[in-house]
Amino acid sequence: MNASTTTQASSSAVQAALVAILAEVIEYPRQRPHSSDSHLPAHLVEQACTALAAAGFDVASLQTTGGAA
Question: Which DSSP state fits 68?
């Protein structure tokens, strides 16, 4: 695996982790979270959404199709 492939794999892993975290705590659409104590402060949710958007991820898809708190 070359450096470019490693960087892409790492970026994909980080993106997948952020998406999973946001799907657990984002409030749109309202669905039962995996854990009843799932919570992140709003500013951290916003930072994660901003990071994903900067990486080219369609954050709106989390708000319309992702799991949520």
Answer: -
